[in-house]
Amino acid sequence: MSKPQPAGTPGWAQPYLARRWHFFNADKHSLCGKWKWDGETQAGDAAPGPAATCVICAALLAKSCKAKAQQGRKPGKPPAPRPQLTWPLVYLASPYTDPDPTVRATRFQLAVEATAAIMRGGGLVFSPIVHSHPLTAHGLPATDGDFWWPWNSTMLSACDELWILALPGWEESAGIERERAQAMADGMRERIVTLAELEAKGG
């Protein structure tokens, strides 16, 4: 996989909010094989092919192509207005990784209960553990935080607040430390919550 050219190289541009779409190494290079092409090519430059992009860039490219294909069509019935959200969209972080599968299963169940309590109270919530744990039964890694980070980072960027479920081990969790760092960089509000607190409010 070729490394992306440094920012400032003619013909290349780091994507807007790229940090929200990619995982970066310490050298600030994206793990994605190519950065977003800015359309201003120089002699000898070639736009990145679809096979060289990560799944996130590929999704963005597909969305862009679909939008361009729809240009020039006759306007149809306008879409119904989306309801105004009155609750913040919450990213519920909680500890998960442990070599003992029983511990992971217990933490998953507690995250499910917390997510349900927030929803019963009318909240809008995304829990990466509730989303990802069932997928580990289908061949996806259970303890590889780097594998899950691009998805979790993207979802965290879409949320308004970071809530941390104070289960045993949360203060030592490397995943939560990474999520807190991104939330702080993005200026997101952070709250530490307990399951008992959420259940009392959720009814």
Global shape:
globular
**Arithmetic mean pLDDT:** 74
State the strand order across the main sheet: 2-1-3-4
- Looking at the structure, the CATH topology of the largest domain is Rossmann fold
- Give the N-to-C terminal Cα separation: 51 Å
Radius of gyration: 20 Å
- Helix and strand content put the structural class at alpha/beta
Instruction: State the order of secondary-structure elements, H for helix, E for strand.
Output: HEHEHHEHEH
How would you characterize the largest beta sheet?
Answer: 4 strands, parallel
How would you describe the overall organization of this protein?
Helix 2 runs parallel beside helix 6 and helix 4 runs parallel beside helix 5. This protein has two domains: 81 residues, no CATH class; 114 residues, Rossmann fold (3-Layer(aba) Sandwich). The N and C termini lie far apart (51 Å). It has a four-stranded parallel β-sheet, with helices on both faces. The protein is 37% helix and 9% strand. The chain is α/β, with parallel strands linked by helices and 203 residues long. The chain is built from six helices and four strands, in the order H-E-H-E-H-H-E-H-E-H.
